[in-house]
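W.,

You were right to be curious about this one. When I first looked at the sequence I had no strong expectations either way, so I just let the prediction run and decided to look at it fresh. Below is the sequence, 311 residues in total, followed by the output.
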Amino acid sequence: MNRYKNLIAMFIFAIILASCSNSTSSSSTSLTVGNIKIPPATAPQPTLPFDAYVLPGSEPALVFYVGTLLVKSCMTKKGFPFPPESLAEYAEDPFYDQQPQISTINFGVDSMKEAKTYGYDDTPIGGKAITRQDDRMIQAGNHAVIRYIQEYGKAYSITLMGGTGPSTDSGCLKYQLATYLLPKHLASEYTKIQNIHEQYQNNSIVETQHNPIVLSDIKKWSSCMASHGYDVKTPPPANRNPKATPLTKAEITEATIDYGCKVKVNMMNTWLAVESYYQTQIINEHPTEFQKVMTIDSDIISAAKRIMKRY
């Protein structure tokens, strides 16, 4: 999507914002800027249209658990043990309890519970926040697997991951991928559609991050943080690793103030409302691709349920 096609609308947004006080954004009434309706801070957070195109509820846990069973079967046939966890354990994991919403990764902590439980991400991967999906794959390399690698040596690692690196193309770990629950012709199409969908998500993030409404609220949030003694220009990434190191009192305090400032300037509802606007535009422009996502996701769940019956 070409972000410059909205320049006129953004110019209008900037003019309207210039006439709004800091308290307008956090009032108890909705604010409409251009075509975007921003709910007040007291309202529930807006849902994102893209969320309708991810597996709901416990279905991600089911797909991942079935993949784990297939990996175990592959490893067993090659003479190695592999420790599948229970489906209940997967279903209770914070990763599955809340679907990964790309927006929350970008504006950091989005609830008081999250601020007090996880705080900030102090161990970023490649300079980026550890997302729930990254963390799921990290947790796949659990202590039992590490113990087996130490016990059986290089042969175990190669059998599991393929080659000498973390490749999933030739090792048993490839069965953890959802594409292996689909016929070959659908698997290749699914990979293609997923890549397109990821690009659309990135587009909506870029559009949101450059929107003057959001930029204005981030500036207000930064001023609020400064009033508490914190010199930060953009929200620090949230730490959603359920097995992170214990938080210090200082980390909890800062994350809690961070969340409070977001509520004060209504940054979260503003961000989500703006991103929802862009996501709706993208879906309307590419209905076929998004319908394919839903169709193939349904095929994946059906295949996972069939495999579960064999175990």
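Here's what jumped out at me. Residues 1-27, 94-104, 122-141 have pLDDT under 50 and may be disordered. And, maybe more interesting for your project: The longest strand covers residues 31-33.

Coffee later to discuss?

I.
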